[in-house]
Design goal:
alpha+beta
Length: about 400
């Protein structure tokens, strides 16, 4: 087992550290916070464009897409250095990590030029239209319809939980184009500009977002979408959907590991939780990092272990949830304090600083729901790791 990185990787790290030391905005520049996951303040647009131009926005992408064809180990180091400084990786995470990535994988050259590069450069933002009132985890149950009529699609239906849609320029929207096909077939992916006639976006509050709204319900009423906005093949959008959810799968565990590490530092032996809960948190943290390192090494060898990623997501998301719940229980009524009372939010980092434990506990449910619920992760583990029947 090799517990250190080779000289090439460390040279990559040193170059990135030098870039951050020279160019990273400070608090005096980052004066405006992003109000949603599809809103980019002007300073954030400049910072994203600078990263794109220097190949540091998404190092795993080719240079024409703001990267440098970096391997998975270098991508890990890139994220590690951002986490070390407490810097959020980007301020339109779905746009960069899912939608632009989907266009790089499945889109045409024209779609990449028109949509992917502007999203990556921060010239526009994008949101993901997947979930519906009757189709959340069961994406194949979606009912939003798109009928091909000559050189255009006509879209009718509704999406919900569409993060940042009210600030986005375009939605990557999954629609049913063949109602007679079996559930996982007959789905297509469309790029729908949010200023299209018939698109209505309604942001709504959550317990986590009382000041700035992020969630949206989106309605499509006879929305006309050019056929050239079809991403991938007609009726074969399931491949785009599963690719979208899997683009950052390999390193998703790292965000949970960073969260657990921060909690370990914050709790300390005489902190807000009992000794056995603190010990469990430490063990979960080590277990996640060791399992994640093994998965990282496998990925570097070209092994795509989807089921193993489910183990990491399940462990990381639920360990963070257990730890914050323990802190909430131990903190008593003071744990209910609102972040506006107990702290502030940094423009450089979307996490609340000194937030109340109730808010922090509730936010952990994003980890156990988004990107595949814990129940779905358990199904994958049961079938693909343990060999149990469906």
């Amino acid at each position: 087992m090799q517990l250190t990185f080779d000289e090439t990787v460390e040279a990559f790290r040193a170059e990135f550290v030098a870039f951050l030391d020279e160019h990273l905005p400070d608090e005096s520049e980052a004066t405006e916070r992003a109000r949603s996951t599809s809103h980019l303040p002007e300073w954030a647009r400049r910072w994203q464009r600078l990263q794109f131009d220097n190949g540091w926005l998404a190092p795993g992408y080719p240079p024409e897409f703001g990267g440098r064809d970096a391997g998975v180990i270098e991508q890990y180091v890139h994220r590690e250095e951002l986490a070390r400084r407490g810097i959020y990786e980007n301020f339109n995470p779905q746009g960069l990590g899912i939608i632009a990535a989907s266009l790089i994988t499945f889109g045409s050259a024209e779609q990449q030029r028109r949509w992917a590069i502007p999203i990556l450069r921060g010239d526009m933002t994008a949101s993901l239209g997947m979930s519906e009132p009757g189709a959340g985890s069961d994406l194949a149950g979606l009912r939003t319809r798109a009928v091909l009529d000559g050189d255009r699609f006509v879209v009718n239906g509704q999406k919900v939980w569409t993060s940042g849609a009210h600030d986005a320029d375009v939605l990557l929207t999954f629609v049913r184009t063949d109602p007679d096909a079996v559930k996982h077939r007959g789905i297509s992916a469309l790029l729908i500009p949010t200023d299209s006639p018939g698109v209505q976006r309604r942001p709504f509050a959550s317990v986590c977002d009382r000041d700035d709204l992020d969630f949206n319900e989106v309605f499509f009423v006879d929305v006309e979408v050019p056929a050239e906005n079809l991403v991938g093949e007609l009726h074969k959008g399931w491949a785009v959907a599963t690719g979208s959810l899997g683009h950052e799968r390999t390193l998703l565990w790292l965000a949970f590991a960073d969260r657990l590490g921060n909690l370990v530092d914050e709790f300390e032996p005489d902190g807000p939780v009992q000794a056995d809960q603190y010990a469990t948190l430490i063990m979960d943290n080590y277990a996640l990092r060791l399992l994640g390192s093994g998965a990282l090494a496998a990925a570097a060898r070209g092994v795509d272990d989807v089921a193993g990623m489910s183990v990491l997501k399940l462990l990381g998301s639920e360990a963070a949830q257990r730890a914050t719940e323990a802190a909430l229980d131990a903190s008593g009524p003071g744990g209910l304090a609102h972040p506006g009372v107990t702290g502030r939010r940094s423009a450089l980092n979307l996490e609340d600083v000194a937030a109340g434990w109730f808010d922090r506990y509730v936010r952990t449910f994003a980890g156990t729901i988004a990107g595949g619920t814990s129940e779905i992760q358990r199904n994958i583990i049961a079938e693909r790791v343990l060999g149990l029947p469906r």
